[in-house]
Sequence to fold (357 residues):
Amino acid sequence: MEIGEVQVPDVIERRALLVRTTAATVCATDVHLWEGLVASKDAGADLPLILGHEMTGQVAGMGEDADRDSLGRALRIGDRIIWTHGFCGQCEQCVVEHQPTLCTNRRGYMQTSATKYPYLTGGFAEYCYVFPTSGRVKVPDTVPDAVASAASCALRTVVHAFDRTGDIEERHAIVIQGCGPLGLFSTAKAAVSPAAQIIVVGGPETRLALAREWGATETIDVEAVPDPADRVGQVLELTSGRGADVVLEMSGVPAAFAEGMAMLRPGGRYTVVGQIHATSLPFNPSLLVMKQARVTGCLSAGVEHYYRGLRFLGQHANRFHWDDMITSTRPLDRVNDAFERMRDWTEIKPALSFAAP
Ligand SMILES: [Zn+2]
Ligand SMILES: [Zn+2]
Fold:
């Protein structure tokens, strides 16, 4: 990534906003894109572009009819917000299926060239353009910038994933694969659910320690137990031979899918969130039949999940020190360092800060 000057749009469309970025956090998706995925045809990206899709900022400019957030609350210059990808609210997926993340007219961030209007469509920039069709919610004063930024991707996705997974009961054992930001937020969500057992599978140990602090009843370190079959064996042992009632795939490691299926008890539910690689793997589909498994995918989130994510942060701020997940803050011009540190696992979630104008 290179630092460069990008034009600030002089026209703000009806319902659109211009936001001055106050914090942006690095998501594993950004790192995968940076490592080369962005150049692949699957990413559908138009280079050169501004990476970053977890960010928060203050409203700096408003189009017509943009003076309310998605919950109808007054929005003024200077208010802090987080916002969704653009979902049209008029297609079958939006209106009939109520699955806006599958919107046929979806307008995504960090997809379009920084040389084309509205130029600023990524988080790692001093300003960002909020599409007319993007949901937007005000950030409560109690939520710090970097944490609000993390809520705008990792946490809202986890809130959505728990919705798609369904009820968690007292008797349930949950396995969470991965202990990056998705896995840690999932641990916190599971910790406030009635679940009897929360088993987090991941690494390194520093992250697992935070997972235990946030409510994991058991952790399995993938470095200490490198063989997937042994990890499956440990989950079976921890669940009296049954396997997990619910498995949440939050690791992004392609091979985690088969492992998660093996950890699932017959009749269990598996929600897959982390997988964005264009990788094919051998898989025996009869496992789905034999286990009568319910496997659900979960992509991004709608505006209600952003809102509920922020509420969750506020409501449980005494139980979880959200700042512990934000492992560093650097100025924008050190964005490449932040990516390096995320890639080599030395950080959970680096944040970028922006000088006040
Ligand atoms: Zn993300
Ligand atoms: Zn739509």
Summary: The mean pLDDT is 95. Residues 32 and 198 are 28 Å apart (CA to CA). The two ends are 23 Å apart (CA to CA). The pocket of zinc ion (ligand 1) is lined by residues 27, 29, 53-54, 153 (CB under 6 Å).
